[in-house]
Write a structure and sequence with these properties.
The chain is built from 15 helices and 20 strands. By secondary structure, it is an alpha+beta fold. It is globular and about 65 Å long. Bound molecules: flavin-adenine dinucleotide.
Length: 413
């Protein structure tokens, strides 16, 4: 493949996160020659630990399901929501759409490493500590300049580039594709703790979302792992979090202390890992595809962490892109906008409407409503389980109007 500092490949994948590894595996199944370049050495920390059941379908497609099932990750079958005395649970197997109803909560350092190893096992060439630093998509074949672990640069010429660089946002930055997200600048502070939670007090099979007692736009996640440890984090507008003094760990501990039920659950926790902060992670692009390239996962758009939709969207984008590439390499004429960007956006827009409803407080009213009609609850459960692309679900077909009408009903009662 390599000669005189030049490499020629059929598909270059930038980044070995969930989107990159799944795309690489799917392309290997088609017999494509795939080069994955990852700037970090794995295992490396990453946030985004609660998967949705819909994501299992893509792990299955990519031949990675068994590896994940055998890894001993925490089983997950739903989501719990708490706000003061209010509490509601969604069981993801009781849902409108067909398909997986359970999944896992994963330490991403290990999960991402397993997927990248699996992509390699399936024949993708995966290089760590190789960073894409420049691209040129003006010619008939796109090119990337890569800096390797020794600091030397080489050129990759590809039949197609899939940018799966996540928050690295390689092509959006280098090709001036970035456009502001419609969401306000939110931030998150998070860490892992030895949680010390007694089995009788907490259902470890569910992510727990807690709404701040005094500000419904502020919320916490508690994501238990199989090891007796948990991921905890808080999300709020950056200006709200800026009011709290101290380092990240002190600020997170103060915020956890403001919610009585969460601090009760975490009263025996050992805070042994310094907390981190991410600010302004919501991002968007002018276009998800262009001549010779497409943007996968977070390299395209990232909405918000509230519904744990990030990895599912990353997998969905990889699956759609691999299908278009199959036809493109077979010599068929393809339309990336119609066959990749538009269908991907359909589900992203479903999640977007749910995120907007959450922050205006409407979706919280729906969640905590005492007696929702069973079928409506099953439709919402399907979206929360990641089935945001199921056109038979009225909350996918007509998301904003349906949500607004339901919010209205819940306000009336
Ligand atoms: C606070 C917070 C909480 C979240 N919680 C959840 C959750 O519970 N569940 C969920 O599903 N999602 C969650 N997400 C979203 C989730 O983190 C992402 O959507 C997901 O990781 C996207 O996967 P990806 O493959 O697109 O990108 P990433 O996972 O970011 O992977 C991109 C890879 O590209 C590499 N890279 C970057 N630049 C370069 C370069 N120049 N050259 C080579 N390689 C490069 C990076 O090192 C990285 O390994 C959360 C996000 C935030 C901010």
């Amino acid at each position: 493949m390599k000669s005189n500092g030049r490499v020629a490949v059929e598909v270059l994948v930038i980044g070995a996160g969930p989107a990159g590894s799944v795309a690489a595996a799917l392309l290997r199944q088609q017999g494509r020659q795939v080069l994955v370049l990852e700037r970090q050495q794995f295992p490396r920390f990453s946030i985004g630990e609660s998967l949705l059941p819909q994501s299992m379908e893509y792990l299955e497609q990519a031949g990675m399901l068994r590896t994940v099932q055998e890894a001993g990750f925490q089983f997950k079958n739903g989501a719990a929501f708490a706000h003061g005395e209010q509490y509601a649970e969604f069981d993801f197997s009781d849902k409108y759409s067909a398909g997986w109803g359970t999944t896992y909560q994963v330490e991403r350092a290990r999960f991402d490493q397993l997927l990248a190893l699996e992509a390699g096992r399936q024949g993708a060439e995966v290089h760590h500590r190789h960073e894409v630093v420049a691209v040129d998509v003006s010619g008939p074949r796109p090119r990337a300049t890569v800096k390797d672990s020794s600091g030397s640069e080489y050129l990759v010429e590809a039949g197609f580039i899939l940018d799966a660089s996540g928050f690295g946002r390689v092509l959006p930055r280098l090709l001036q594709l970035e456009t502001p997200s419609g969401f306000p600048v939110r931030a998150s502070i998070f860490t892992h703790v030895e949680d010390g939670i007694a089995a009788s007090e907490f259902d470890r099979n569910k992510i727990r979302i807690t709404v701040h007692p005094a500000n419904h736009e502020v919320w916490y996640w508690l994501i238990p792992f199989a090891t007796g440890r948990s991921s905890i984090g808080v999300v709020a507008e950056a200006s709200f979090l800026a009011r709290y003094a101290g380092d990240e760990t002190a600020r997170l501990a103060t915020l956890v202390g403001e919610d009585p039920s969460l601090s009760r659950l975490l009263r025996n926790a050992r805070w042994d890992t310094p907390a981190r902060q991410l600010v302004g992670y919501s991002a968007n692009v002018k276009s998800l595809c262009g001549p010779g390239f497409a943007l996968l996962g977070n390299a395209g758009e990232f909405l918000d962490p509230i519904f744990s939709s990030g990895v599912t969207i990353a997998f969905k984008s990889a699956s759609l892109a691999a299908n278009v590439l199959r036809r493109q390499f077979a010599g068929e004429s393809v339309d990336w906008q119609d066959e990749f960007a538009t269908p991907l956006k359909r589900g992203v827009d479903t999640f977007r409407a749910f995120v907007e409803s959450w922050y205006r407080g409407g979706f919280q009213r729906i969640v905590f409503h005492a007696d929702p009609p069973r079928e409506v609850r099953r439709m919402i459960s399907a979206i929360l389980a990641g089935y945001a692309w199921d056109p038979t679900n009225p909350f996918v077909r007509d998301t904003a109007r349906r949500l607004a009408a339901l919010e209205e009903l819940c306000y009336e009662r």
